[in-house]
Amino acid sequence: MSATPTPIVTRFAPSPTGYLHIGGARTALFNWLLARGGPEGSKFLLRIEDTDRARQNDDAASAILEGLRWLGLDWDGEPVSQHSRQARHAEVAQALLEKGGAYKCWLAGEDLEAAKARAREANERFTSPYRDGAPGEGPYSVRLKAPLQGDTVIEDAVQGEVRFPNAALDDVVLLRSDGTPTYMLAVVADDHDMGVTHIVRGDDHLTNAARQKHIYEAMGWGTPLFAHVPLIHGQDGKKLSKRHGALGVEAYADEGFLPDGLFNALLKLGWSHGDDEVITRAQALEWFSLGGIGKAPGRLDPDKMRNLNAHHLQALSDEAFVERALPFLGDVTDAQTAMLLRAAPFLKPRCQLLADAKDAAGFLLAERPLQITGKAEKPLRKEGATEALRLVHDDLSSAQDWSAAALDLRLQSLAETHGLTFGQVGPPVRAALTGGNPSPSLGETLHALGRDEALPRLADRL
């Protein structure tokens, strides 16, 4: 009988000092996919690393949660506040002291800086004289008693075997002299108590993994599986920054990305499944594994991101497209909403982002009488334009079938019946209907506008 698969427990642990940036969102996505695609009982947990009270920003913490919700990354249970667990962190530090895995250090201030400087000058590891020396007096910090020789080996699910010479890893402070925990202690205590089995995070934390492994081992705890993901770079190969167009999730939403579109774009930043590019949420849940994460940094390509979003946008139903596009269109009447629904099949292929709908639907949203000037007015000034408009207006007034295909055929037949080329009929009709705004075929344009809007627009030019 095969053993029941062990549930996977992952976590996303942002610091609430800014909004949910693109790198953090990708980390959250990978953790979410690993847990949601894992065996029954798997969990995706959320922890707010708010121990740095000077940098704490409640608005930023709320924005991070909102960004996760918008992306559709739900979490299990309530978010854990790291700050609220300080008593537990101090308890673990005390346990380490009792186990001999940590020691009290009275070195501080100028004396500490001088000792570190001497170690640097001698190209030696800094080691506190209190590690094995006589105790001091007054306030003290608690330092990890890390191994001095050999290597610390991390079997990383992305990076492979990574070795760190212990001579290069100093005895990190676990508890400051004021009793507050450091990041290194808090993270290990929290991950252990939360039952985290897989730690998926940026490879800028790889050195931290070695130090954190020492804490796990000193406490006699099992070490989670580490997976350190290469950071995202710009197209120039340099570390991602705002100059590369790196934005917070809310900024991408404001640009008109769909949650599924940004989800897909984030997924492709460093992870792959064969040659698949357009990937649905269901496919991602089925296919995702840590083995698909590459060792090379993902590169942020705004054009590719918009192209992926376009595929997801075109997959929307007409009703969903209009509903999501409306916030980008300003005040829209019920009649215009009806036009947008009729036009949706023609509008979706013209949009990469929801914000593009404003230009794509400009011909629908223009108010009568249309202001037609410059080049847009040129077809209306040509000889015979008014007569062509009158023929079209009169003929369409009796049209029963107002479908795009039927209207296209009717216009072509009208031109042939009156001995006109379509070049004599089409341009003035398009100008009168759209005011020079980009539009699909004339049949599609007429169908989208509807009889009650199209005929009056033509009549305005007679």
TrEMBL record:
A motif ('KMSKS' region) lies at residues 239-243. InterPro entries: aa-tRNA-synth_I_cd-bd (IPR045462), aa-tRNA-synth_I_codon-bd_sub2 (IPR020751), aa-tRNA-synth_I_CS (IPR001412), aa_tRNA-synth_I_cd-bd_sf (IPR008925), Glu-tRNA-ligase_bac/mito (IPR004527), Glu/Gln-tRNA-synth (IPR000924), Glu/Gln-tRNA-synth_Ib_cat-dom (IPR020058), GluQ/Sye (IPR049940). The keyword Protein biosynthesis applies. One of its GO terms (molecular function) is glutamate-tRNA ligase activity. SUPFAM superfamilies: An anticodon-binding domain of class I aminoacyl-tRNA synthetases (SSF48163), Nucleotidylyl transferase (SSF52374). PROSITE patterns: AA_TRNA_LIGASE_I. Its EC number is 6.1.1.17. ATP binds at K242. It is found in: Cytoplasm. Residues 8-290 form the Glutamyl/glutaminyl-tRNA synthetase class Ib catalytic domain. Gene3D superfamilies: 1.10.10.350, HUPs (3.40.50.620). Catalyzes the attachment of glutamate to tRNA(Glu) in a two-step reaction: glutamate is first activated by ATP to form Glu-AMP and then transferred to the acceptor end of tRNA(Glu). Monomer. This is Glutamate--tRNA ligase.
